[in-house]
Amino acid sequence: MPLILNIRRLGRLACGLICGLMLAQAAGGATPAQREISVLTWPDYLDPELIAAFEAKTGYTLNLTYFESDETRDDFLIRNNGAGYDLILINDYTLQLYVERGWIDALNQTQVSSLRYIDPKWLAASKGQPQYGMPYFWGTLGIAYRDDLVSMPISRWMDIYDPAEELRGHLIMIKHSRDLIGMALLALGYSLNSTDSQQLEEARALMLKQKPSVSAYSYVSLGEDSALLDGSVVAAQVYSGDALMLQKLNPHIKYVAPEEGTNVWLDQWAVATQAKNKNGAYAFLNFINEPENAANNAEFVHYASPNLAANKLLPPSHFEDPVINPSQEVLQRGGSYKVLPPRVMRKWNAIFAEVIH
Questions:
Q1: Is residue 209 included in any domain, yes or no?
Q2: Which of 44, 139, 172, 353 is 20 to 30 Å from the Cα of 300, by its Cα?
Q3: What is the domain-level CATH number for residue 223?
Q4: Are residues 59 and 191 in the same domain?
Q5: Count of helix runs (H) and strand runs (E) in the chain
Q6: Does 356 reside within a domain?
Q7: How many domains, in total, are found in the chain?
Q8: Residue 340 vs residue 16, higher pLDDT
């Protein structure tokens, strides 16, 4: 990380601590609930120093709840019909579904001034409709693998859906219907959004054939206890920046966006319709999108930021890394998930349940 960003970060944190003490005194009449912001997000997806600086500067407290898969997040929200959270971290296609359920509020443009920093191409998805999401990070879905434990580099989805002997029993696949089935479809040469019954049956057969080789349907740990580090897992489906986190712990961990194509995803923050602290939610969105804060956060999570002002503060190495900023060739091979018709989604869900259980 550049020295100038470290100095700025320390200075901001110190200033935030002082400001936070002043705000805490001023907010003496407020209840703890009024100062708490309930956030539903992925683990390891926010710089802890950024969280500390926000809390110190504003007097708000972040109450973070983590989900391990998109299905887990869905379950949390279904239980209470979307209630219980102020901010929800969500991918772009599921955002549409949550809006239809009435769980997500359109962003109040007057309260979220930091939208001005976001690259217009990432805001274009609204197509003239109200803006419901604040773009956060984007990346690809691919394979992280140990290059010292395989005889040949992994380059294709079929390398793990129809694995060689050395991979059998040493695979982790993401427990998410779109990622698991979508990439099986790509491995077979079909669309990751296929609605064709025959193509889905072929994907089902491929995944059932693969199943004995999968040690777990989950998400690989990103810490020092990761199975990719001790070698008990040789390859895993992962999101691009997470592979870089693991690579810091072991340089033999490589990442590939497979030749057959991949999912190019966009994660967004959304304000819940039933949020109890919308003012706090907007304060947080504005804070994490301040250019220096967004730049520090991007370096921490190793993902590409849609924040144009933040990108000007990032070192060249961030942009030159093909995992963080994939080539046009990779992006052209990629695609985004689309909302599928209910009858098709029921088919996907039935296949998913059969494979993982």
A1: yes
A2: 172
A3: 3.40.190.10
A4: no
A5: 17, 9
A6: no
A7: 2
A8: 340
Please report whether residue 85 resides in a domain: yes
Beta bridge partners of 64: 39
Do 153 and 201 share a domain, yes or no? yes
Please give the pLDDT value at position 124.
78
Report whether 241 contacts 267 (CB < 8 A). no
| Mean pLDDT value across the chain | 90
**DSSP state at residue 276:** S
Q: Are residues 133 and 19 in the same domain?
A: yes
Distance CA 223, CA 148 (A): 20
Q: Which residue in the block uniquely carries the two structure tokens 């772009």?
A: 92
The gap from C-alpha 343 to its chain's centroid, in whole angstroms, comes to: 27
Token pair, residue 112, equals 């979220």
How far apart (Å, rounded) are the C-alpha atoms in residues 335 and 330? 10
**Each residue's pLDDT tens digit, 293-320:** 999 999 999 999 999 999 999 999 999 9
Nearest to 79 by CA among 45, 97, 106, 103: 103
Query: 103-144: per-residue pLDDT in tens?
Result: 999 999 899 999 999 999 888 765 556 789 999 999 999 999
Residues 244 and 299 in one domain: no
Nearest-CA neighbor of 214 among 169, 257, 184, 255?
A: 169
Residue with tokens 């003012």: 279
Q: 343 with 220, same domain?
A: yes
Residues 211 and 121 in one domain: no
CA torsion sign, 16 to 19 to 23 to 24? Answer: positive
Q: Are 56 and 20 in contact (CB under 8 A)?
A: yes
β-strand pairing of 36-41 with 235-239: unpaired
Its domain, for residue 151, covers 139-263+326-351
Tokens of 276: 């109890």
Phi-psi region of 127 (alpha: psi -120 to 50; beta: other; left: phi over 0): left
Q: What is the pLDDT of residues 212-255, one digit of tens each?
A: 999 999 999 999 999 999 999 999 999 999 999 999 999 999 99
Quick one: 128 and 233 in the same domain?
no
Do residues 174 and 180 make contact, with C-beta atoms less than 8 angstroms apart?
yes
